[in-house]
Write a structure and sequence with these properties.
The protein is α+β, with helices and mostly antiparallel strands. It contains 6 helices and 17 strands.
Length: 287
């Protein structure tokens, strides 16, 4: 747990594809203004605001939205070391501790020095073809190499630190962080890792007659996923897929940048949060 964190230059951003986010963001900005802070607000996709974040003009980014908004914010803020505070206006909120009706109470705690910074590992991915890097990304949740439009499974092989690990015939393969372990990786049958772990998780998606277990790798591991057929795509944190050709490979390792989140209370919030979600989702289901 880090020392207490009290921001001096926050900014509030709204996820524009959800209703009421701008109304809420404006209310947050006004509330903090009453507390003596000059806090601009705008869209998470406003390029001029994004440039100011990248330049380090702010020391906190408050996001009104859901988990997807926090993922986008993580990709934006990590390179300039700006911490993120999410306010959940969405459904699940695995990444978010503060609910819509609670933010005033939590903002008071924040300004009172009752918050701390949680650091979460990110992944760095590169798309390589014939020795040339065609693209690179940082991911907070996962890097997915999966089948595209066709229903046929893809053939992939994975190596770790230059040594062959295994081959897959599957719908895909995920390389995920501990943060991503409660997202796509969880849906694919992977384990839940607590957020402070700095591991890389390899999880096959609907494997067919191939290894069906997740593998947990050390932070320093270099994973190489090779495409051994057609019809594969890669997607980083659920963004638009990138087409892959046969013999392309995707290299994944721990990123040099870290995502920072503002948290309240003890680190056990993670288990309370996840238990609440699981209990909520199991209500009404047959035992």
């Amino acid at each position: 747990m880090s020392n207490a964190f009290i921001p001096k230059r926050p900014v509030v951003v709204a996820y524009p594809r959800m209703s009421d986010t701008f109304v809420e963001a404006e209310a947050m900005s006004a509330y903090l203004h009453e507390k003596g802070l000059d806090v601009p607000f705008g869209s998470l996709y406003d390029e001029s605001l994004r440039k100011r974040v990248r330049r380090g003009e702010f020391d906190l980014l408050i996001v009104a939205g859901g988990d997807g908004s926090v993922l986008r914010a993580g990709n934006l803020c990590a390179s300039s070391g700006v911490p993120i505070l999410g306010v959940n206006l969405g459904k699940l909120g695995f990444l978010i501790q503060v609910e819509k009706q609670e933010w005033r109470e939590y903002f008071d705690k924040l300004l009172n020095g009752e918050a701390w910074i949680e650091n979460r590992m990110m992944l760095h991915a590169e798309h390589v073809r014939s020795g040339e890097i065609l693209g690179s990304w940082d991911a907070l949740n996962e890097v997915a190499v999966a089948r595209g439009q066709s229903l046929r499974p893809v053939r992939l092989s994975a190596s770790v630190d230059g040594r062959h690990l295994t081959s897959y015939v599957a719908d895909g393969l995920l390389a995920a962080t501990a943060t991503g372990s409660t997202a796509y990786a969880l849906a694919a049958g992977g384990p839940i890792l607590p957020p402070e772990l700095r591991n890389i998780l390899l999880v096959p998606i609907a494997p067919h007659l191939s290894v069906d277990r997740a593998v947990v790798l050390a932070e320093g591991a270099m994973v190489r996923i090779q495409v051994n057929g057609e019809n594969a795509v890669m997607s980083v944190d659920g963004q638009s897929p990138v087409a892959l050709m046969e013999d392309d490979h995707v290299e994944v390792r721990a990123a040099e940048v870290t995502a920072q989140f503002v948290r309240f209370g003890d680190p056990g919030y993670f288990y309370r949060n996840i238990t609440a979600h699981m209990n909520e989702n199991s209500l009404g289901l047959p035992r």
